[in-house]
Write a structure and sequence with these properties.
Blueprint (H helix, E strand, L loop, with lengths): L1 H22 L6 H10 L8 H11 L2 H6 L2 H5 L6 H21 L8 H12 L6 E7 L5 E11 L2 E2 L3 H10 L4 E7 L9 H15 L4 E9 L2 E4 H4 L8
Parallel strand pairs: 4-5
Antiparallel strand pairs: 1-2, 1-4, 2-3, 5-6
Helix pairs in contact: 2-3
């Protein structure tokens, strides 16, 4: 029976790899992306249940990758080598992103447009990004804060604030896309921005701006007057 199970899992892994080779990660759910990543840390067996458990524990792919090895090891099925592998993948991703945008300071609307349009280009669903900045407004790391469907994205504010705290930044710029619309903030966008800004202000972290990216336009909620941090 053990040999039969091993053959089943080996066949599943091969089908997942073929799917990736054909379409990249298009159509993959988050648990499938993590399941496949775990193939390279756990050489045999079914990694699907562990992927689900990690996402339940840490809330998102970013949460899993940003978790420290000790926290990862507390999840049943995660050994030291797997925890170190996931921790390395997070560091590797950050290194690549920092290299790609090295030297760019998000002090101007033009730089913000360039940075966030490149990050959100081609997204068919609404996504929110959080760019965590150092004292010179250079990006420490940028992560996906929320995902949704065209026209709507649900923000889990407590999880977002926790992720920002983990970056040890001094300030943040949020951005999200309107894939099929205009770069105009909705009442929900304004409310979410003010809620997040108040939570961050209590932690001595400044929310500088919220950028909205549409196919043919980009706007700054601060310049538009839809976000007024001095009045919070």
């Amino acid at each position: 029976m053990a040999k039969q199970d091993e053959n089943i899992h080996a066949g599943h892994r091969e089908r997942m790899r073929e799917r990736f080779q054909t379409n990249g990660l298009d159509g993959f759910h988050d648990h499938e992306v993590l399941e496949m990543l775990l193939f390279y840390a756990i050489r045999r067996g079914d990694t699907n249940p562990l992927a689900h458990e990690l996402l339940r524990e840490f809330g998102s792919l970013q949460g899993v990758l940003w978790a420290d090895p000790e926290s990862l090891c507390r999840v049943k099925g995660v050994g030291e080598s797997t925890a170190q592998f996931l921790h390395f993948m997070a560091a590797f991703h950050d290194h690549v992103e920092q290299s790609r945008m090295r030297g760019m300071s998000l002090t101007t609307f033009e730089n913000c447009c360039m940075y966030f349009r490149s990050r959100l280009s081609g997204c068919s669903d609404e996504n929110m990004l959080a760019a965590c900045l150092d004292d010179q407004c250079k990006v420490i790391r940028c992560f996906t804060a929320a995902k949704g469907v065209p026209g709507r994205v649900q923000v889990e504010t407590q999880n977002l604030v926790r992720m920002i705290l983990m970056s040890h930044c001094r300030s943040v710029i949020l951005a999200h896309n309107h894939p099929n619309g205009r770069a105009v903030p909705s009442p929900e966008d304004i409310q979410n921005t003010n809620t997040i800004a108040k939570l961050l202000k209590a932690l001595d972290i400044e929310l500088i701006d919220h950028i909205i990216v549409a196919p043919d336009d980009t706007c700054s909620m601060r310049e538009l007057g839809a976000y007024l941090p001095d009045l919070l």
